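Before any further analysis, backbone shapes were mapped to integers, which produced the following:

***
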Amino acid sequence: MEGRWVKDSILLGHGSGGILTHRLVREVFARNFGEVLKYGDKALLEISGELAYTTDSFVVNPLFFKGGDIGRLSVSGTVNDVITCGARPVAISASFILEEGLSMEVLYKIVESMREASEESSVRIITGDTKVVERGKCDGIYITTTGIGVKIAELNVSGRFLKPGDVIILTGDIGRHGAAVMAARLGIESEVESDCRPLIDLLEPISKVGEGVHAIRDPTRGGVATTLNEFAEESSVTIYIKEEEIPISEEVRGISELLGLDPLYLACEGRMVIVASEDSSDELLCELKKTDSARKAKVVGEVVKGEPRVILENEGGGRRIIQMLSGEQLPRIC
């Protein structure tokens, strides 16, 4: 960050719409999102094609954790949600709720992190809005985003399109984000880092396989277990997964055992669950493994006829039903 701020922390006046607001926009947001000065809290887009649209809010606590922060998380989560529509992300709007007293240095780091993530994705942050609330009415900063993308013609994906015989693919090891946030929140010394990242490089391999890909979803809140249950419900099928095939790092296992958590329910912010036809799975895996985001992609299960449920088979051949997350295992992880 260059120079010094007129104020070292956020004041209520920064949300007044007056001089402080305009300085905040120029010195923090416009330095990183240059386009916000064109139209302010609105924008014009020239887009051709079928649009995908998503919206999300981010209230993670703490604001910074190993592997990311609320800024990187907000852009990554929005980009990834657009991708799950089978669309290429184009633009993002971002709305900020700031707490009086928030350090200007902290705000700048978060906004800078958003810029870096958007550049990784070749996505423009084109407009936004800022409000300030009294001290104690917000934990520093909350961010709400809207993402817009253009549907990729070769893709037609939905949780309703699973068919018996399809395979379940994970693009990497699971639970990193949830474990990293909880470690940071509780002050636990751990090497685990969040997997938080925009998965823009997955678009090429997924698009190449095209109609062979039936569903894509990022297993955020509720983790892989909840995502698979959603798929099973939406398509009225049974999903089998093999415990020994589920990739879980030793660091995540350690945090999970310490806190009494099941890694299957821990949030991921840089992984996808992909459902593809068996005929397409080898080609898809080959293409996925060429990307930085899915070098360790693997098949972990299959779709069969049956009532909507998810069944986990352990190494000994025993089976148990994996339910959708009930209650809140990890509050405020995104």
In short: The chain has two domains: 23-33+45-151, 167-321. The chain has a mean pLDDT of 94. Residues 236 and 308 are 5 Å apart (CA to CA). The two ends are 26 Å apart (CA to CA).
